[in-house]
Specification:
The chain is α+β, with helices and mostly antiparallel strands and 245 residues long. It has 5 helices and 12 strands. The protein folds into 2 domains: 187 residues, 2-Layer Sandwich (BirA Bifunctional Protein, domain 2), CATH 3.30.930.10; 42 residues, SH3 type barrels (Roll), CATH 2.30.30. Helix 2 crosses helix 4 and helix 2 crosses helix 5. The N and C termini lie far apart (41 Å).
């Protein structure tokens, strides 16, 4: 079953991820289903941050995936596929430099245009189901400067049809998914898209400010960085984050 069949659209939801998980638990949806909301009243991002989207202006969706044989220890591959697919879509609509900020935010230059929240249902050693929540700033504007955010409207200079963006997103996700099923983990694509790769940037390691140079991401989703002094280590999201800009 291809991603994007069916698309279930709602006027208002607390969370598309929550609705997708509930419907899957009731066996009402399966792999490929997309839950879309015109308004999301309690959207969440990474680290339990609030995800805010303008009603009717932006794309807020959750995609149900059933990854065949995916071991729990390798579940970060789903973040890679989703982030790369969103990046693919953004590039088709705008001309600016697009990159993936670890683990799975999508930036244009230094400004965030999309965020992804993945919630996996793990049974034993396998991922039984994954709900991939995606928020893309499409036609919103007027962002507070401290948010460092942008949208397709602001980058392209014109309004963008949400239905067209959703169609492109489902197609890009399905293409990335089929490549993974065929054996391509797309690690090189993700490493090439990594924001700040090879540059010294401010980060926070175990609560302490550091300067580090991102290099790549390992199969477990840990960011491999070089620290000042030459030490190279891999760190999880619980240990390491980019310093607030």
């Amino acid at each position: 079953m291809r991603i994007g069949a069916p698309v279930l659209a709602f006027e208002s939801l607390e969370s598309t991820n929550k609705m997708a998980a509930e419907l899957f638990g009731l066996s009402k949806v399966q792999h490929g289903a997309v839950i879309m909301a015109n308004e999301q009243t309690a959207g969440r991002g990474q680290r339990d941050r609030v995800w805010v989207a303008q009603k009717g202006a932006d794309l807020t969706v959750s995609v149900v995936l059933e990854p065949p044989g995916l071991r729990a220890e390798d579940q970060f591959v789903l973040s890679k596929l989703a982030a790369l697919a969103v990046s693919d879509v953004v590039r088709t609509w705008i001309g600016g430099p697009v990159a993936v900020k670890w683990p799975n935010d999508v930036l244009v230059g230094r400004r965030k245009i999309a965020g992804i929240l993945i919630e996996n249902d793990v049974m034993g050693e396998r991922v039984a189901c994954s709900v991939v929540g995606i928020g893309i700033n499409v036609n919103s504007s007027g962002f507070p400067e401290d948010l460092m955010a942008t949208s397709m409207l602001l980058e392209s200079g014109g309004r963008v049809d949400l239905t067209d963006v959703l169609t492109d997103l489902c197609g890009a996700l399905d293409k990335r998914w089929q490549a993974w099923v065929a054996g391509d983990a797309q690690a090189e694509d993700y490493a090439s898209a990594l924001w700040a790769k090879g540059r010294w940037v401010a980060m926070v390691l175990d609560g302490v400010p550091v300067t580090a140079r991102p290099m790549e991401v390992d199969r477990h989703g840990r960011l491999i960085v070089e620290l000042e002094g030459g030490a190279v280590n891999a760190y999880s999201l619980d240990q390491l984050r980019f310093a607030p800009r």
